[in-house]
């Protein structure tokens, strides 16, 4: 194998003004390459950076550097808040299933990715995420890969020939981590209700965060669950190790936990390393309705910022600021609707702002997911069953799971 490894400074020197640069998604943003890009910013103008960050600091999104960098983001994390407000960052509302195809349309000038060192056959593994990275590698004009010895080698479709990489750089920084969030009493109450909706032998999709961790914990008495999800959270390890998750009743990828990325600490990364029953696949497979519809009893469990009285879901915006992205929510909700015996579940606390604002509101001005794709909405006050219900019936169901302080106000709103 030809050694294509060069210093980071030399590799990043190939980025030019006005380039479109795409970073690997989620926890896979390559930290050494990004640090070098920032070091070289003074020679660059109007470089457009595309990202989908999770657990990453997004240091390049400094509003003072807006003459050097612009950011187009598929996921507005906290590290982008100031740059979004300043206008340096713009938001891309796009389903995760569609991003690989968008890479083909974009044909970016440069890709920054992470990978493991090559094996004896000259193959590398993408480690923490497959999502849109395979498509990015295929369609970018220049692919620069940061080699990290701390990345796991994860089975699935994340193994590629090193011939697909133009330049390698030795990484000097550890991969990004996302520590587990600790749930509170409200999350535990919600999780109890969600668990009631999940029968044995179901296949589940679930996200990350304190509520997701609590729901995962509430499933400990279930049996023979399968997992087909977007982000693999660290809390799932216990369910697998205790035999709750077996994946034996999945019609496809039987026996395998399937995700598109890992999001956790080095403990999760080490666990997934060469694990025979954990696979990462591109998001145009994991999030495709055609894929999910082959799984019976698929239960999509997602959260939201707000739900209105018709059942519309806002999962990305607080006031005028986007706090996340479309992500895979709509993909998985649609998939659940297409699955025989499937259910789409939205779980959220009934209030925000320390109990001063209701998360269930009369109407939404901005919706992430449609009212026709929701089976159940769950708060700490119970379960609202929306599927097959009229608008009037939905309103009654949702008011019944609203915080007591806001029920009269919502009742008077219609």
UniProtKB/TrEMBL annotation:
One of its GO terms (biological process) is acetate metabolic process. Residues 264-413 form the Acetyl-CoA hydrolase/transferase C-terminal domain. InterPro entries: AcetylCoA_hyd_C (IPR026888), AcetylCoA_hyd_C_sf (IPR038460), ActCoA_hydro (IPR046433), ActCoA_hydro_N (IPR003702), NagB/RpiA_transferase-like (IPR037171). Residues 4-156 form the Acetyl-CoA hydrolase/transferase N-terminal domain. It comes from the Bacteria. One of its GO terms (molecular function) is acetate CoA-transferase activity. Signal peptide: none annotated. Keywords: Hydrolase, Transferase. Belongs to the acetyl-CoA hydrolase/transferase family. This is Acetyl-CoA hydrolase/transferase family protein. It comes from Salicibibacter cibi.
């Amino acid at each position: 194998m030809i050694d294509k490894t060069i210093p980071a400074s030399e590799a990043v020197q190939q980025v030019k003004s006005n380039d479109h640069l795409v970073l690997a998604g989620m926890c896979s943003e390559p930290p050494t390459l990004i640090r070098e890009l920032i070091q070289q910013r003074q020679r660059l103008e109007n470089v457009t950076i595309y990202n989908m960050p999770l657990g990453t600091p997004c240091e390049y999104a400094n509003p003072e550097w807006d003459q050097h960098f612009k950011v187009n983001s598929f996921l507005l994390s906290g590290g982008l808040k100031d740059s979004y407000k300043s206008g340096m960052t713009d938001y891309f509302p796009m389903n995760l299933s569609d991003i690989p195809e968008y890479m083909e349309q974009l044909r970016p000038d440069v890709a920054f990715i992470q990978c493991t060192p090559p094996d004896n056959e000259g193959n590398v593994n993408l480690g923490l995420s497959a999502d849109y990275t395979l498509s990015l590698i295929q369609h970018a004009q220049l692919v620069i890969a940061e080699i990290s010895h701390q990345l796991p080698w994860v089975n699935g479709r994340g193994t590629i020939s090193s011939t697909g990489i133009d330049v390698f750089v030795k990484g000097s920084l550890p991969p990004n981590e996302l520590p587990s969030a600790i749930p509170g009493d409200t999350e535990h109450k919600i999780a109890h209700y969600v668990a009631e909706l999940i029968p044995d032998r179901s296949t589940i999709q679930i996200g990350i965060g304190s509520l997701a961790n609590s729901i995962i914990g509430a499933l400990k008495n279930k049996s023979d669950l399968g997992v087909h999800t977007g982000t693999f959270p660290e809390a799932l390890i216990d369910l697998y190790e205790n035999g709750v998750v077996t994946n034996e009743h999945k019609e496809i990828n039987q026996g395998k936990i399937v995700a598109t990325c890992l999001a956790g600490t080095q403990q999760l990364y080490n666990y997934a390393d060469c694990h025979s029953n954990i696979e990462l696949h591109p998001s145009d497979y994991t999030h495709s309705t055609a894929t999910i519809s082959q799984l019976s009893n698929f239960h999509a469990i997602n959260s939201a910022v707000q739900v209105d009285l018709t059942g519309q879901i806002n999962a990305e915006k607080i006031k005028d600021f986007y706090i996340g992205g479309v992500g895979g929510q709509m993909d998985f909700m649609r998939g659940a609707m297409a699955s025989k015996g499937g259910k789409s579940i939205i779980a959220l606390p009934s209030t925000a702002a320390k109990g001063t604002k209701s998360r269930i509101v009369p109407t939404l001005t901005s919706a992430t997911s449609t009212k026709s794709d929701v089976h159940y909405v769950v708060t700490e006050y119970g379960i609202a069953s929306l599927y097959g219900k009229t608008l009037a019936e939905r309103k009654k169901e949702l008011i019944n799971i609203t915080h007591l302080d806001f029920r009269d106000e919502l009742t008077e709103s219609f």
